[in-house]
Amino acid sequence: MSARLEVADIFRRHGEAYRQVHDGHLGRVERRVMSAVELCRTADLGGHIEGCRSCGTIRVAYNSCRNRHCPKCQGQACREWLAARQDELLPVSYFHVVFTLPAEIAAIAFQNKVAVYTILFKTTAETLRTIAADPRHLGAEIGLIAVLHSWGQNLHYHPHVHCILPGGGLSLDGRSWVSCRPGFFLPVRVLSRLFRRRFLEELRAAFDAHSLKFFGDIAGLTEPAAFARLLAKARRLDWVVYAKPPFGGPEQVLSYLGRYTHRGTIANSRLISMDGERVAFRWRDYRHRSKMKVMTLDAHEFIRRFILHTLPDGFHRIRHYGFLANGHRAARLDLCRRLLARPQQDDIEPKAESTAVTAERLAAAHRCPCCGEPMITLAIWRYGQAPPSPCWNNTS
What is the greatest pairwise CA distance in the chain? Predict the structure, then answer.
């Protein structure tokens, strides 16, 4: 049985040629991501050799790149993040709302990722909190987790924010819990209009502060009149705010968060084949009843689409707001639970891996695959060092 195709295989075969062709258009972040994916779990990054005293089995394990864009390096980070989140769930329904930028604004976002992504997070949270605080809708302080994605299933650039929210919030005087209507959180049409207005106000302010840069096809937006025309056009568009059906329970919340918070541009499991210069992968066409299809791209086009979604250094793509904000989360959640008059883990049994289960799983990874006895480390080599001789094949 042949090994499963990975993004790393595509980068290793075609990455160097891509860098040569696009040398003048690749930034430092994109180059580093490509290199990390190519080197991940290879001898170049270092590793260690394990041996079993009981049966003599030898195993080589190579180090991970730990780059957040690498399809192979997010599993452990996701498990640790979910373990921290499971104790923060409330015994209420949870909702999922998505805020999407129109294509005209997405073009600006791509050339100004830090500035526009920051505006996107800010205005998304402000929109939800403002409408929720309005007594005509909910009249409460809400909490939310916001996750930035910039890709669609076909890997095109499609910036949007997924928001996960408990179905209710603290009353504005902090004395009671206010529940939303069953199966309904906030009106999406009202959210869409306020989101559009607030985002365009912030974008205009960024332009006036000379915080935006424009190149290539949109270089003309440097002219104030052209930028004003773009804003006027954007105001006439319907901005997509989509509310999905509520989750069935906390278990579904954790399962969903696990799929979205640390998921990269494309999982290795979606790759089908690499035939010469062509790469085929599965994608779900949401415009045609979520039908699963196969897309085949030139390898260079696949790489181009993959690196469209690199994030600037230090930029956080998961953020917390309202009573889930980092500064006062524990105290506000404690108040929420007291007002809901139910223990923290009353009848909730989240299915995410606990810290103990995670530790047990990691310990199992260091047991002999043949006899199950503990493996011991025989040799270690670091990044930039040559592997110890003789060289074993990677069997990890």
Answer: 77
Assign 367 to helix, strand or coil: strand
Average pLDDT per block of 10 residues along the chain, 396 residues long: 83 96 92 94 87 87 88 80 84 93 96 98 98 96 95 94 94 94 92 98 98 96 97 96 80 75 86 95 89 96 96 94 93 94 46 45 66 86 74 48
List the alpha helices (DSSP H) in 261-328. 299-307
User: In this structure, what token pair is assigned to residue 194?
Assistant: 């306020």
> What integer pLDDT is reported at residue 345 of this predicted model?
42
Q: Are 186 and 128 in contact (CB under 8 A)?
A: yes
Q: What is the per-residue pLDDT for 348?
A: 39
Q: Quick one: pLDDT at residue 76?
A: 73
Question: Tokens 């954007």 map to which residue?
Answer: 234
CA 271 – CA 355 distance, rounded (Å) = 31
* Cβ-Cβ contacts under 8 Å for 153 (sequence gap 6 or more): 283, 284, 285, 286
Which SS3 state, helix, strand or coil, does residue 153 take?
Answer: coil
Nearest CA to 147 out of 2, 274, 259, 288 is that of 259
Residues 269 and 119: beta-carbon distance below 8 Å: no
Could you write out the DSSP letters of every residue in 16-48?
HHHHHHTGGG--HHHHHHHHHHHHTTSGGG-EE
Classify residue 133 as exposed, middle or buried by CB count within 10 Å of its CB (0-12, 13-18, 19+).
middle
Cβ-contact 143, 322 below 8 angstroms: yes
Of 169, 119, 120, which is closest to residue 144 (Cα–Cα)?
169
**Residue 86: which of 361, 336, 349 has the closest Cα?**
349
